[in-house]
Design a protein that fits this description.
The chain is mainly β. It contains 1 helix and 8 strands. The protein has one domain: Immunoglobulin-like. The radius of gyration is 23 Å and the shape is elongated. It starts with a helix and ends in a 10-residue tail after the last strand. About 15% of the residues are buried.
Length: about 140
């Protein structure tokens, strides 16, 4: 392949890169706690592990019957489980297969309901790289 052909291919690749940009998916979390009807408050924590992976943690000191659900804004259930009644629960969730939208982790401990709302959005970023910088 001659030098002109290589330069043309590099230029086309640069134009394609600029035109398409890159896509990054992020999730924003916000807290919303329902009515707490029990006298023993449990803590619910959702930690962002990056790449739409989250770690859900909560305490169940009285070892009550528990249900964990992942629902959207229209109350469609994407996941639910009745975990063992341990004192502490920790699980990582990969949410990369979910579409953009509003979701909630809902933990029901007996009569107590804990919620953690979050939003998944796709954002596009455009950038430029000079052909002389790309070798």
């Amino acid at each position: 392949m001659n030098k002109n052909t290589k330069n043309i291919i590099k230029a086309i690749a640069l134009v394609f890169t600029i035109a398409t940009g890159t896509t990054q998916v992020t999730a924003q979390t916000k807290v919303a706690v329902d009515k707490v009807t029990s006298t023993e408050k449990s803590s619910l924590s959702v930690q962002d592990l990056g790449s739409l992976r989250f770690k859900l943690t909560f305490e169940n000191p009285s070892k009550q019957k528990t249900k964990i659900s992942l629902i959207d804004s229209e109350n469609n259930v994407f996941y639910y489980v009745y975990p063992s009644n341990d004192v502490q629960y920790v699980k990582a969730f990969d949410l990369s297969n979910l579409l953009d939208g509003e979701y909630t982790f809902l933990v029901e401990l007996g009569t107590e309901k804990l919620k953690k709302d979050f939003v998944i959005t796709t954002k596009s970023f455009r950038g430029i790289a000079l052909a002389s910088d790309r070798k």
